Amino acid sequence: MRSRTSRRARTAVLAAFLLALPVSGTTGRVLAANGAASGINDETAARADAPVTTDKDQTEISVTVYNSNLALVHDVRQIHLQSGIAPLRFEGVAASINPATVHFRSLSEPAKLNVVEQNYEYDLLDAQKLLQKYVGREVTFEVAGVESKALLLADNNGPVWKVGNEIVTGLPVSSYRFPELPGNLYSHPTLVWTLDNRGGTAQRVEASYLTDNMNWSADYVLTVGRDEKTADLDGWVTLLNNSGAAYNNARLQLVAGEIHRTERQLMAERDVMVKAMSVNAPAPPQFQQEGFSEYHLYTLERKTSIQDKESKQISLLSATSVPVEKYLSVEGQPYYYRNAQGIGNAIPQPVKVFYRFKNEQKGGLGMPLPAGTVRVYQADSKGGVQFAGEDTIGHTPKDETLKVYVGNAFDVVCERKQTDYKKLGGNLYEMEYQIVLRNHKDAPVTVEVREQLGGDWEVVNSNFPSTKLDSSTIGFQIPVEKDGTATLDYRVRVKW
Length: 496
Hints:
Elements (H helix, E strand, L loop, with lengths): L1 H19 L6 H6 L1 H5 L3 H7 L3 E2 L4 E9 L3 E11 L3 E8 L11 E4 L6 E9 L5 H7 L4 E6 L2 E10 L3 E5 L2 E4 L5 E3 L12 E8 L4 E11 L1 E11 L5 E12 L5 E10 L30 E6 L2 E6 L3 E3 L3 E14 L1 E7 L15 E3 L2 E7 L13 E8 L5 E9 L7 E8 L3 E14 L2 E12 L5 E8 L3 E7 L3 E5 L2 E8 L4 E11 L1
Parallel strand pairs: 1-4, 2-16, 14-24, 21-29
Antiparallel strand pairs: 2-3, 3-13, 4-12, 5-13, 6-12, 7-8, 7-11, 8-9, 9-10, 14-15, 15-20, 16-18, 16-19, 17-18, 21-23, 22-27, 23-26, 24-25, 27-28, 28-33, 29-32, 30-33, 31-32
């Protein structure tokens, strides 16, 4: 009870204090100095009073998004201009715009409309900035239900007031009242041009600019049949818009490729999961693809709206009965002292599982595939579809082969050990290795074994045929019967 009474008492004292203090008698002087105190000059006032065009004037909008967190915007509007030299406020641009890339032109009379000066206004309106803009001016505020006026002297880590002849801080202000908005605060990012118009007052104009914080990527769903011989491939474009603007009824284009830029780029992170779906017939393509410089351009055949803070997915491709091959692979260690950690025991190694297929037209594909994530699903015995793994692919032209690593085999086991090591003299050595493969599946498998060697090497003997894949890799194809075991023994001579 005492605490409540004490609070009421303090409130009453504060209200009495405010009522007792005279309002500053310098009202006329303060108001006369408003412009200088708030940093508003004639030029700023002219900008604030300039004619405004918004996205309601748009007749066309097109967005080209690069997979490097970058987009090119073309904004076409039908507007009314003043004759002679006059300002124009162009609202509705992206908050992440790069002002140095802005280009403005008339599509109606390009020779008669020129830009004299351009400003990008991004000092956006909020409560704190509004208060700061009123430093040096009188502000009406309410404390403990009492409305009062005072001169705002400063707002550095809290407002400092002059009430009568007193300097006051720490007032528990519940609300402020401002007579007007300062001319140098904007509710939206705005381009302000000073234009020299020697043409008509009604003109069709275009503003184009680059903006950051728009990105796209490709996601693929590879649904493999029970026989693991064919698969359906669905491709999706995932578009992320954090640019600070919406693009309604826009023409959308995507560029795939490594665009060189001189400034540091921050990639937007994403975590998008595409659900597998059964496709009975391929859907008509939504994107038309064409070569563009050393990149590929994908144009959406219809218009779409892209909202700010939105993740949008659009179908890129759909192909059925694509021939696929599943294969198992064991990859050897890169250094020739391979089994130093074995301590007399065989060392287990994973047997990796891959699917590979060719991006060719006769297989139902043949479209340049943008880099992205491939998620693999496989049909089970009950007719369902289960997730089997995922991998990333790079930009893949047509007629190239893709390999998708989905995980490690459960029922196929590999162990290796070095069985002999001899120094023949000088820098000449001989080493022998044994690789044991055990297949616990109810069907035979073939495992590709790839061994990395160093120096000047040759195979002395091997119980399976070997293939020299490159200067440092030897390959073997090892068949393993169901519930069986196969052992690879090979000996190499190496000169270092």
